[in-house]
Each structure stands twice: as structure tokens, then as C-alpha cells.
Write a structure and sequence with these properties.
Elements lengths: L2 E5 L2 E3 L5 E8 L7 E7 L6 E6 L5 E3 L7 E6 L4 E6 L8 E8 L6 E2 L3 E5 L2
Parallel strand pairs: 2-11
Antiparallel strand pairs: 1-3, 3-8, 4-5, 4-9, 5-6, 7-8, 9-10, 9-11
Amino acid sequence: QVQLVESGGGLVQPGGSLRLSCVASGSVFSRNAMGWYRQAPGKQREFVARISSGSIPLYASSVKGRFTISRTNAKNTVYLQMNSLKPEDTAVYYCYADRPGYSLAWGQGTQVTVSS
């Protein structure tokens, strides 16, 4: 059973930055693709970014050029560096693990609020 714990959310002003972290346990982390979704109030959960087991990134068009996903296999951790934040980035951000042969595993989420 994989467990994912996110951290790093908070309140930031427009134009600011935050770095989210997600620590995984209970699986062979290096074999998993990892990623982030987000869900704003009243909206569906939407894809943000993904990083393959080989560290190839993929981004939603809405965050490309502003967000960077990375991973450190030695620490079982995936990161999401978020720069130039906008009010529309306000959401609960969820980490997920995409393990071969299994359904997606999810973290509990971390709140990001972008407001002046």
C-alpha cells in the first residue's frame, strides 16, 4: 500500500512562489511515474504535471513555463516548484503515484491560496 504525504502549501501573493513536496512510502518509488493534480472550489480536479520514472516531465498548458516538476529518488520525493503564481492557481493540490499494474494512489492534498 503506497502512502503519499504532501507539504508546502500556504498563502502567497500573486507573482510569488511556493514549492510543494510529496513523500512516498510503501512502493518502489523509482519505478513510479509521479504527478500533481489540483482542484479549485466548485471545479473538477485537473491535471497539473507529471514526471516519468525516467524524469521526463509533462505539464498542463496553464502552468507550462511557470511550474517545474522534479523528483529525488533517494528521498522518495517529488516536488512541484510553482513560480509567478496567479489567483487562478488557488486550489487543493494532490500528489499521485502511477504504479505499473495498479490504479493511481493519491495523497491527502495541500491547500495553495494565491491572494493579495
